[in-house]
């Protein structure tokens, strides 16, 4: 593998008696799409939470682009280029869809030193090449959210809320996008279409995608590489076809063979 | 409400205040000036409420502003209203920048009670400080404007006009602030702090900035109240004073940056009328008024006005 964009070394985390991560070492190459699979409680979300600073690991190091980001605050990690969506979408419920995106673009302006006490946002947003209004329109268009732009976020359906959550993660133009069950709440018929739209939008920006997913068909179709988690460990790592047909994965993760938990 | 509409309504209200102020009796000029001062404090509360934070100790900065104005008279022999407001804003800005480091760490009831505790510490300090008049307080030098002392006939009007202009400027500045990238983060924090952090912003830093803005507004209000009343005492920092500002903010509602000033005027009228009609039970009348507003207008007096939905 060429220089990995994300290098996780010997990551461990315990919550009381539960081991969420046991000595996990993983390297992620740039511009790739990686699926994280595992039963509930296997440590997938904890893994994502540690990378994004939500949870501090007990041991181990996380390097991003060669820089040690272990234990940094979420905002610092976001500013470096790692953004995420959540299992339960984290939106600004009282605001419209458009305003949700505008807030994110405003943060970019502030972080670029253009968001003072009385500064308006009619200037070019860093990385977006247009005003905040224009940039917000483009972000919404990329995720098919334009028809909802005037609707309050707390009035949206589950699937649209998920998309807006991912769109918010994409506003900062991340180099790595971590998605926690991006298609939960999306109808079975639309799942593939939605996932393809997300990957297309991320790849268009040159972002690496890591996504947690329980739908193995979706993983097989969308991921270029799969990490299978069990009991806080990565028990298989490789192309989807290889990992999903692995006997241990089938027994412990996908439940395709008897003997799993 | 759009910024343009707010500006137009504020301009009309200012013109009415400036023109009407020429003809109304002195007691009403006094009431309106104090209402502008209290409205500034309530506007500071609105700035914090927008981020989901309720301060029970905003009187800290109201009182600090008043004492800064008094200190100007005592140590520099100046009663200039403009200088008093500048001194008040500077003192509150510095104090809030320091105290905000602590306050911005808390949310909900802890934020409210910590702000209350800080205001009561100031109250305690002032009560024990003989040099600042202890419980008797201090008299403020007669008001001047840019070094000129208006004649007695014009004094009240001059201070009212100044208060009106300051309130107008504050309304425009805060309205503009609410529509900036920084200002938009206030409601974002109220809605979802996690997402704000995961967009790359520091929630604590934003709350700190809003806290300082609210403090400066409140201190300017305190300086105006001091020069209007002519006397200040530690009660300006007492928790009941903070309660009055919360009362005004609830009465007004948070639908517009103009609402706190409407709330302050209505509060002043209810307070004065109730006190005149029944000096011993005026608090009960205020309580009933607030109860009626909460029951009949849960979003405050401002909800009486038709709202335009912004795009």
Describe the structure.
- The complex is a heterodimer of chains A (261) and B (311).
- Chain A has 261 residues and is an alpha/beta fold.
- Chain A folds into two domains: 169 residues, Rossmann fold (3-Layer(aba) Sandwich); 77 residues, no CATH class.
- In chain A, 34% of the residues lie in helices and 23% in strands.
- In chain A, the strands form two sheets. A six-stranded mixed beta sheet of chain A has the order 6-7-8-3-9-10, with helices on both faces. Chain A has a four-stranded antiparallel beta sheet with strand order 2-1-4-5, with helices on one face.
- In chain A, a hairpin with a 2-residue loop joins strand 4 and strand 5.
- In chain A, helix 3 packs across helix 4 and helix 3 runs parallel beside helix 5.
- The two termini of chain A are 33 Å apart.
- The model of chain A has no long low-confidence stretch (mean pLDDT 90).
- Chain B has one domain: ABC transporter involved in vitamin B12 uptake, BtuC (Orthogonal Bundle).
- In chain B, helix 2 runs parallel beside helix 6 and helix 3 packs across helix 9.
- Chain B starts with a helix and ends in a 15-residue tail after the last helix.
- At the A-B interface, helix 2, helix 3 and helix 5 of A face helix 6, helix 7 and helix 8 of B.
What is the percent of helical residues of chain A? Answer: 25-40%
Mean pLDDT of chain B: 93
Beta-strand content bin of chain A: 15-25%
Uncertain regions of chain A: pLDDT < 50 for 5+ in a row?
Answer: none
Number of helices of chain B: 12
In CATH, the topology of chain B is named ABC transporter involved in vitamin B12 uptake, BtuC
Shape of chain B: globular
CATH superfamily of the largest domain in chain A: P-loop containing nucleotide triphosphate hydrolases
The overall strand count of chain B is: 2
Task: Please state the CA-atom Rg of chain A, rounded to the nearest Å.
Answer: 19 Å
SSE pattern of chain A, N- to C-terminal? EEEHEEHEHHHEHEHEEHH
